[in-house]
Amino acid sequence: MVEPETRKFRTLFLSDVHLGSKGAKATFLLDFLKYHDADTIYLVGDIVDGWRLRRSWHWPQEHNDIVQKLLRKSRKGARILYIAGNHDEFLRDFQGTHFGGIEVMDRTMHETADGRKFLVIHGDQFDVVVRNARHIAYLGDWAYDAALAINTIMNKVRRMLGLRYWSFSAWAKFRVKKAVNFIGSFQTVVSDEARRIGADGVICGHIHHATIEEIDGIEYINTGDWVESCTAIVEHHDGKMELISWTHLIGEKAGFAPVVKLEDKRPKAANAA
Hints:
This protein is an alpha/beta fold. The chain has one domain (8-263): Metallo-dependent phosphatases (Purple Acid Phosphatase, chain A, domain 2, 4-Layer Sandwich). Helices cover 33% and strands 24% of the residues. The strands form two sheets. The chain has an eight-stranded mixed β-sheet with strand order 4-5-3-2-1-11-12-13. It has a five-stranded mixed β-sheet with strand order 6-7-8-10-9, with helices on one face. α1 packs parallel to α3 and α5 crosses α6. The termini are far apart.
């Protein structure tokens, strides 16, 4: 089987890898980074899971390999910007610092090849639970660990049966948050912030729900995560944004697949008269 060539983009956006947690899909991210490169890479928060690491140390070789892979990309000329999130909030004390060529910041603006301006921010600043009731957020984190454990066991069984990966934790979380309209409220508030500062859109993470859509004239883009959905956002050299889902590779005979599914959920523009 011929190994696929590396795809080169103008910009790559990744978030919510949660290195240091047992739920991180480090093997899949390493595979993704092997076949995807970009001139600029944004790490949109929660790359390292400081909350988990404070409870117990978990740092297998695959997690170290991801750090080394990113550092190698930086040495080869890629600009890498690390936007701190709530699980790696300790980095907010080091805004403006460079670690091995990686720039650390709390938020920034990204201008696409076609001139659009996007606010790039993790998004936890707009999560009422995280901002106003941290103890509730931590309790939710414990419940989330349990869901991830169920997810791991269930997918071992699915692999034995020859079935594809399916995220129980993503399904369960989406069902619960949909019931309280959390995702919709989060999207609206983050989009309102982009509008307030005069941006054309926002690129964020935090809620582990990847999408590209328009909300009241603002382009809302969420990068998803590498715990449940294994997704990333890429900007092509013409400025087009697309969502890549890497879970479609799981179960392929060679361990990887030359075909990557691209998904764009933005509303299609009407044909010109």
